[in-house]
Design a protein that fits this description.
Layout lengths: L13 H7 L4 H27 L3 H17 L3 H16 L2 H28 L1
Helix pairs in contact: 2-3, 2-5, 3-4, 4-5
C-alpha cells in the first residue's frame, strides 16, 4: 500500500477552497461546518467497519471521507482516505489498519486546523 506522508500535503488549503468558492467566506463557513459534522462520525464508522471485517461498508465510508475531504480541501485527509479505499479494494487489511492509525491523527489535526480557521473568519 502506498504511504503518502501527511507531512508532504497541507492539512487544509484554505486559500484554494476560498478561491474555488469565489471568495465567498460565508459559503466557505457553511461547507467547512458541514464537513466537520461528518468527519469524526465517518472516521468512527470506517474504523468499526474495518474492525468488523465489513469491507463493503468500509469502502463506501472511505470513499465518502475522501470526497468530503476533497470538497473541503483537506488534502492530507483525502490522500490517506484514498489509500485506505485502494487498500480495501486490494484486500490489504494490514496496510489499511496501519493507515487508519494515521487517519485518526490527520482527522484530529484537520478538525483543529479548520476550527482555528473558522474562528478567524
Amino acid at each position: 500500500m502506498k504511504d503518502s506522508s501527511r507531512h508532504e500535503l497541507k492539512l487544509f488549503a484554505a486559500e484554494s477552497l476560498l478561491s474555488r468558492l469565489m471568495d465567498d467566506e460565508e459559503l466557505m463557513r457553511q461547507v467547512l461546518q458541514a464537513c466537520l459534522q461528518d468527519l469524526s462520525r465517518n472516521f468512527e464508522l470506517l474504523k468499526s467497519s474495518v474492525e468488523a471485517g465489513d469491507e463493503s461498508t468500509a469502502s463506501k465510508v472511505a470513499h465518502t471521507l475522501k470526497g468530503s475531504a476533497k470538497n473541503a480541501d483537506l488534502r492530507a485527509l483525502a490522500a490517506i482516505a484514498l489509500e485506505i479505499e485502494e487498500g480495501l479494494k486490494a484486500g490489504d487489511r494490514v496496510g489499511v489498519e496501519r493507515r487508519l492509525e494515521d487517519l485518526s491523527t490527520v482527522v484530529r489535526d484537520s478538525i483543529r486546523e479548520v476550527e482555528r480557521y473558522l474562528a478567524r473568519i
